[in-house]
């Protein structure tokens, strides 16, 4: 007689315990050396200041051509930039070349911004976009009797008042008045 023996499989052996490897203490990496700020020489600063003044004069010269077209505020911005350039020059002359360089860099950025504003004026208000701007202003005047600069969202905010001034110049037949940042249609018999 054969007996059937049931053979049970033994459970798998437990996984081996991980060997404890000592973790080396974290070593702080030395911080990278600070970037070395290169301070230009007095001669280099004077040269950059002179170039910046020439560039500012060129931008103002171009902008002057558009003053009659409504480009406003350029003289004030140019005056502020010129004051920065003068400050940079004084700082350089007294030997604070690092601070002079910083002030000059701010002035150079402001000149680029001014140049961009004039360029946008040429492209937008003297170019292909103007008919759409003019149409929007006409519609606002017809519907509300006024055209707020804030509603001219298709052009950069710094050009909106210039757009209203240009519209007023191009429409001398209309009784228009520019008050702060809105153009008003002044009707007959109405006091302002």
Describe it:
With 192 residues, this protein is mainly alpha-helical. Helix content is 51%, strand content 6%. It contains five helices and three strands, in the order H-H-H-H-E-H-E-E. It has helices at residues 42-64, 74-93, 97-125, 130-144, 160-170, and strands spanning 146-148, 176-179, 182-185. Strands 1-3-2 form a three-stranded antiparallel sheet. It is flat and about 105 Å long.
Notable features of this structure?
192 residues; mainly alpha; 3-stranded antiparallel beta sheet; 5 helices
Unreliable parts: none
- Gyration radius (Cα, Å) is 35 Å
Order of SSEs: HHHHEHEE
Instruction: Give the % helix.
Output: 40-55%
Overall number of strands: 3
Secondary-structure-based class equals mainly alpha
Shape: flat
Q: What can be said about the biggest beta sheet?
A: 3 strands, antiparallel
Strand order across the biggest sheet?
1-3-2
The span between the termini is 126 Å
Overall residue-averaged pLDDT value:
86
Beta-strand fraction estimate: 5-15%
Number of helices: 5
Give me a quick take on this structure.
This protein has 192 residues and is mainly α. It contains 5 helices and 3 strands, in the order ααααβαββ.
Q: Topology of this structure?
A:
Elements (H helix, E strand, L loop, with lengths): L41 H23 L9 H20 L3 H29 L4 H15 L1 E3 L11 H11 L5 E4 L2 E4 L7
Antiparallel strand pairs: 1-3, 2-3
Helix pairs in contact: 1-2, 1-3, 2-3
């Amino acid at each position: 007689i054969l007996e059937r023996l049931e053979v049970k499989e033994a459970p798998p052996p437990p996984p081996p315990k991980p060997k404890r490897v000592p973790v080396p203490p974290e070593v702080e990496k030395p911080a990278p050396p600070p970037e070395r700020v290169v301070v230009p020489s007095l001669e280099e600063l004077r040269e950059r200041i002179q170039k910046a003044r020439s560039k500012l004069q060129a931008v103002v010269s171009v902008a002057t051509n558009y003053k009659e077209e409504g480009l406003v505020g350029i003289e004030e911005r140019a005056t502020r930039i010129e004051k920065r350039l003068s400050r940079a020059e004084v700082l350089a002359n007294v030997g604070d070349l690092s601070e002079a360089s910083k002030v000059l860099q701010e002035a150079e950025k402001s000149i680029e911004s001014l140049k961009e504003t004039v360029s946008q004026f040429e492209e937008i208000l003297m170019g292909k976009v103007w008919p759409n701007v003019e149409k929007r202003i006409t519609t606002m005047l017809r519907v509300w009797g006024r055209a707020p600069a804030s509603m001219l969202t298709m052009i950069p905010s710094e050009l909106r008042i210039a757009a209203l001034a240009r519209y007023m110049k191009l429409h001398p037949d209309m009784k228009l008045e520019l008050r702060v940042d809105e153009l008003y249609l002044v009707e007959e018999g109405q006091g302002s």
